[in-house]
Amino acid sequence: MRGLYVHVPFCKKKCDFCAFVTYENKDYLIDAYLKAVIKCLQRIDLSVFDTLYFGGGTPSILGSERISSILSIVGKKSEVTVECHPDDITQKFLKDLRSGGVTRLSLGIEAIDQEVLKDIGREKPSRDIFQVVSEIIDTKFDVFSIDLIFGSRKESVDLWISTLEKLAGIVDGPNHMSIYSLTVENGTPLKRDSNRHPIERDLALKYKIADQILAGYGFSWEEISNFSKANSRSIHNGIYWSRGEYLGVGVGAHSFHGGVRSKNVSNIERFIEKVNKGESVVVYEESITHESKVIEETYLALRTPKGISRDSLFSSRHAKYLEKYFELNSNAVLNVDGRLIADEIFSMLDVRG
Amino acid sequence: MSKPKVNYLQENIRNFSIISHVDHGKSTLSDRILEVTGAVNPRDMKEQFLDSMDIERERGITIKAQNVRVEWKEHILNLIDTPGHVDFGYEVSRSLAACEGVVLLVDASQGIEAQTLANCYLALESNLEIVAVLNKIDLSQSDPERCAQEIEQVLGINSQEILKISAKTGEGINSLLDEIIKRIPSPKGDINAPLQALIFDSYFDQYRGVISSIRVVNGTLKARSKLKFLQANVTHDLEEVGLKTPDPTPVDMLRSGEVGYIVANVRDVQESRTGETVTDALNPATTALEGYLQPKPMVYCGIYPIDGDEFPDLREALEKLRLNDASITYEPETSGALGFGFRCGFLGLLHMEIVRERLEREFNLSLIATAPSVEYQVELSTGEILNIDNPNELPQTSHVTGIKEPILKITILTPSTYTGTVMELCQIKRAELVKMEYLSPERIELIYNIPLAEVVIDFFDSLKSRTKGYASLDYEPNGMKPANLVRVDVLINGTAVDAFSTIVHRSKADEYGRKMTAKLRTLIPRQLFDVPIQASINGRIVSRETVKAKRKDVLAKCYGGDITRKRKLLEKQKEGKKRMKSIGRVEVPQEAFISALKLDE
């Protein structure tokens, strides 16, 4: 499997926690940027890709016509995802996307309570979320995914439970949920305001609550932060987690091809300029050594239900303390307590190249 | 550099030291004397010429004794520079034994300080002629009249005879040299007697072996003779004998009264220690000169390489340093927490600091040192006496009938306005007042008996900060005394960590326990479970802190395929884990040990 990713670095308003490459006041660059992206796409053999993913930023800001024009260049793929902001959703938009080949719609809700939205520094959407959700359901995408962020100090445990119940419990509603813990990233407004930093104990509790509630509605985990109903797994994301190959097109996008990981320039003007001059947009390249490969395999597998080999667990001198964080079948798979401390557990494994 | 011109005549020799408190200008005066007598061309003059080690120059103190021969008006003057710190008191006394007189140098803006007194008493005890000199008279804040009065009152030196100079500007240096010739007696050795020569300093040169500074007391030390070292009871062939002018200048012989150096194929400084008597192996003197002492360490600590692989390098470095400094002792020791290292003994805290700094600087090692400790005498119920310098060697209390600790007699000189705060400090430090005397209405002398263990932990710094730097301190050992001492152990998750064990007075044990557990709570990273940190005395827990368990440690998202960033974060976390030591099942980073062992932070 090979994935193609297109980065759309525009937002109406950038959220306080966001560390992605995205701009809130550069809409005047949208067309120049898309021209550059299309140039990039025209240089490559697009037939080799199985999936297409529009990420951001806010891809839906482009509107259905621009998205469709890219879709027509890339051609039909078995999975095509578009990340959407609720305010960009209209029935026409949805219809255009569905008919243009989009199979998977990812809706960035993040939170439904106004106080919580304010606390994480995200603008309150002008459209009613549940109305938007029902329009998406009516459009019948193969996969309808919802993004939530938990861990605001303004979000009581009860509020979190009701948020999950209201969304996961919708009949014929979303069949995929991305549940991200609020993360303090360097360089963000959130980082500078420690009064809004999440509390670890609260994050742990809310994650466990989410795991249980989602399970009750038939979701099982496919990755630390991702839960899905039967046959609704994300193929594109699965490529990242299984060390498959992918090509990232656009500013700040990442690629993995031929054992080399690379990253594009993360300044939009530089990106456009380089593409127009015919220069390479890659600013970082790393050939993955055997040792790095083993490390990647181990921690990525640890983050999914695939798990690591029992040997990988029992060769650690800490194995006897770590055992209780795993379910042991043919592999060693993290249980919910283990998932919460996956990084620490990884650091205690004896991973050798 | 100058060649010796003045011919030998014992009556024309003057051997003297300059004694003073730290910072009173001794090195500057030495420099000026070298310049004025033409021994060193002003062009070649480095500041503090005699302080040859980098550390000496940086810290502005003299660690090793040095000597230089200069000529002044048909006389030979041997200036013997003495170490300027109380840790090296024995070396001072040996340097003085090589002299007939001293120049007592007092900063005219400061007055007499504790070490001025201590060294002056040493000189008086050795019946040396004292030429008192007030320095820094060029400074506006200097008060030579008041200082002269103080010297007269405290030391009984006629204030009319006190010279006033500025080593910095050179004012008064010529008349000082004239006075030295006039007032300090010439040596009275018997040139026809069998050779007796005193070694007052030795250092190791990697090409020539041990080079020793030497004063001939009686007889003649001839080039190419066979020498016998009386205390070490070894003989060596003399390779070279010479004068320091200040460059080493070989000569045919040194005769009674003369000061110079010898190179005698000695590979180990232990055989040519300060205080050793050298004689002619073919016509030996039967008795050694008086005053030889085996230097005894006062302060001990464990020194460990941060990287366990550097243990052999540390051993080699210690061996090399000891070639130069016979007073360091070291023995291998093992710590459950710190691995392999050495228990080292030092003359004092400064000595400890200097040795550690030299190990790190000259041998490029990264070290971790345990808290300084002293040597205790433990009496067991069997009647047996144990000497222990490592807290972990203290047996269980049920077997111990008593513990004695070393006591110092300290002399503190301070402006009298600080008397209260100094006495308060001494009270906290379990010191007992012996004597209190006003040297003048403004200055007071306090003499205390104080446990050495209290001095090695931040006493000097506290004294300085309480008196804004004005108090001065001198000390000498004053026997052993029984005390109510206990060992405090620190337990991490129930496992005692040897590196943190310490012996303290019962009255301070709880406080130490509280401090240590509180500090460790901030230093030990959170684990997957709650980690109790406890301090215990004889198995009884006196304080407890808890490092709370990690609840969540996982990055939410592998950003749009940014696997590299995630991998690098994890690699870093994993690398950190590798460098941790396991205490039971608790992982403790090396940095936690280093920070916890830093005193009073």
Unreliable spans of chain B: none
Shape of chain B: globular
Most extensive contact = A-B, 45 and 26 residues
Helix percentage of chain A: 25-40%
Q: N- to C-terminal separation of chain A?
A: 25 Å
Helix and strand string of chain A, N-terminal first?
EHEHEHEHHEHEHEEHEEEHEHEHHEEHH
Instruction: Give me the secondary-structure category of chain A.
Output: alpha/beta
How many DSSP E strands of chain B? 33
- Strand percent estimate of chain B: 25-35%
Low-confidence stretches of chain A: none
**SS element count, helices of chain B:** 14
How does the overall form of chain A come out from the CA principal axes? globular
Rg estimate of chain B, integer Å: 28 Å
Give the assembly state of these chains: heterodimer
Q: Number of helical runs of chain A?
A: 14
Terminal-residue CA separation of chain B: 50 Å
Write out the strand line-up for the largest beta sheet of chain B, numbering strands in chain order: 11-10-16-7-8-15-12-13
**What integer is the average pLDDT of chain A?**
96
Q: Which percent bin holds the helix content of chain B?
A: 25-40%
Structural write-up:
With 353 residues, chain A is an alpha/beta fold. Chain A is 37% helix and 22% strand. Chain A has helices spanning 30-42, 63-74, 91-99, 114-120, 129-139, 157-168, 200-216, 235-241, 268-277, 290-302, 310-314, 319-322, 336-340, 342-348, and strands at 2-8, 51-56, 79-84, 104-110, 143-150, 176-181, 220-223, 226-228, 245-249, 254-257, 260-264, 282-287, 308-309, 326-328, 331-334. Chain A has a 9-stranded mixed beta sheet with strand order 7-8-6-5-4-3-2-1-9, with helices on both faces. In chain A, helix 2 (63-74) links the parallel strand 2 and strand 3. In chain A, helix 1 packs across helix 9. Chain A is globular. The relative contact order of chain B is 0.08.
